[in-house]
Amino acid sequence: MLFRSSNKLFFFNTIEFRPRQTGNNEQLFRLPTALERVGDFSQTLDNNGALYNLIKDPNISGTCSATNTTACFKDGGVLGRIPVSRLYGPGLAILNQFPLPNLDQAAGTTYNYRIFTPIVDTLTFIPAYRLDYQASQRLRITGKWDGQTARVVTAVGSIPGYNDTLQKFPLSFNSSGTVNYSLTPTTFLEATYGLNQNRLGTPPTGTFSNRNNVVCPSALAAQVANCNMGALPFPFTGDIAMNPAYYESKALKEIGVPFLVGDTLQMQPLYTFNGTRLSTPPPNLTFPGFMNINRTSDVVIGVTKIMGSHTAKAGFYVNHSYKAQNFGAGGNGAPSFQGALAFNVNTSNPLETTFPYANAAIGVFNTYGQQSAFVEGSFVYNNVEWYLQDNWKKTRKLTLDYGIRFVHQTPQYDTFNQVATFLPEKYSIGAAPYLYVPGCVGGANPCTGNNRQAKDPRTGALLGAGSTSLIGTVILGSGDGANGMRQAGNGISNTGYLWPWLAVAPRFGFAYDVTGQQKWVTRGSIGLFYDRPDGNSVFSTVGNPPVATSTQSQWGLLSGLANSQFKFGPVPILTTYQYDSPLPKDLQWSGGVQIALPLQSALDIEYTGRSEEHTSELQSRFGISYAVFCLK
Q: Model-level pTM?
C-alpha cells in the first residue's frame, strides 16, 4: 500500500505471506514391546531383528550365553524373563511412557514403530512499514518497521503428542526513527533511534515433559513398588530451582509448559539407549539449548557543518544490548541440569544385563551425571562513542579525510553476578582436588588389559577392572572444586572482567588526482578500530564453579545411587575472560590507484591489510593483507 498526501506525507506498507506445509516425514523407532514393559525379554529382538533373550542377571556370577545360561534371567523357566521381585519401578515407568510398537520388527530391520508425521499448515507473515513526513523545508521525519512473525502452532514431534514443541514468540522486528533538521543553510542535524528484538526457543509441551506425570499402568503398578518417575533418584535433585527473575521463568509460565511447577523444573533426564543391540531408540524430551531474548537499542546523533572547503562532522553513538540465555544443555564438559542417564550396553559394567531396556527394567545404569543448577545469564553491555572528523578539499587535486573516535566500551556481563573467572594468583596447590591416576595390578610394566586401572594417588588403592575411564577425573571431596575461581562482585568487579575506560581511535585518508583530469587517482587510508568480541566468548562464563558444578556416577543401581561403584567429578572446561583485559583492536589500511584506459575502461589496483590484537577468538590473526587487481 502506498499513500502520499500534499507532497508532505509518504506512507508505504507491504505484507508478504508465506504459507507452508510441513510433516509427512517418516519416523522409525525401536520402542519397548508390551512384554519388555513388564520385564519379559523372552521374545526380544536386537538391532538386526534377531532373537536376543540372553539377559544377564548381575546377581549371579558366571556367563549368560547360548551355550551356558547359568547366569541368565529365566523366571519360571522362561529364558529372558525377569522376576517381578527384581523389577525397578521408575525404570519400568520410563519404558511404559512411549507408544506401543505398531508393527512386528522384521528380520534385518532396526525398528518396530513406523509413522509419518501429520501434515501441519503454517503461515509466516513478513510486514514492512515506512513513513516519511516533510514537516517543513527544514524538518524531515522518517520511521521504519519491518519484522517477521508466524501463526503460533504446535510443532509436531517425531512421536506426535510425546515430544511436541512450541515457539510461542515468533515475532522478530527491526525498527528505527530518524529526524533531519537544518539548523542553518550550512549546518545539519540528524538523530536516529533504533530498536531490534527476537525471541528464540521451542520447549517441549507434552504431558510427559514433567516426569511426575509418567506412571505405570495400574495393573503393573499394583505389582511393582514406586512404578512412577516421581520416585526416580537424581545425582543432585530432580526438582531444579529456577530463579523467578529469569527471563525464561516468565516465558515458560506464559507458554504454560507442564514441567515448570511454581519455580521448580521437574523434567525427565536425558536417556541413552542406543549402541549395542539397539540403534533406533525413542527421542528425549530436551530443554531448549538456547531459549533466549535478544534486544538491542541504538541512539545516533550527528551534526554536519560546511565551512568553505571543509565539511566537518561531530557525532555521538550509544548502543545497548540485552540478551538473556540459559547456560546451554550441558556445556563446559558438564551434563545437563536435567540429568544424563545412560542405559546403553557397556561390557565393562559388572552389573550389565546386556540389553538397554533390560538395564532400565532393573535399574542398572552405565553412567548417570547431572549439573547442579539451572543457570541463565542476563547479559548486557553499553557502547558509548563520540567522534570528530573533517573532509578537507585542500586543493583541486588533493582531498584529505581525518578524524578521531573516542570509545567507552563496557564488558558484556551478567546482571545476576553469576559470572565466575579464574585468577591464577588465587589458586592454591594445597587446596587442589586430586585426580585419579593410572595404575597397574602388581605394578607391571607394560600394563595391559584389565590390569590397567584407575588409582587413588593418596592411598595407592586401585579401583578395579574397567575403571580406566576414571583416570584424570576428580576424586570427589578431595579438594576445593572452585580453587582459584572468583565470582563477580565477590572480591572482583561485578562485570567479571575489566576493560579500559576509554580508548582513542584515529583515522586518516586521502585522495590525490595526479593529472588533475581524473585519469590517474591515488587513494590511501589507515584507521584504528575497536571491536566487541562475539557474545559466545562470555555466555558460558555463568556455568563455571562455584555457580554450577556437576557430578557423574558410573556403574550402579538406581535404587542405590549413592552407592554406585564409581562416583567422580569431571574436570571442568572453564570458560573465562582475562580479568584485566585490553580492548580488542583492529588496525586497517589500504592504498590503491585508478587509471583511466581507452574504450571507457579503467584499471583499479588496490592493496588492503589489517592487524588484529587482543581478539578473543580461538585462533589469532595478524597482518592479513590482500591485493586486488580489477579491470573494468
A: 0.89
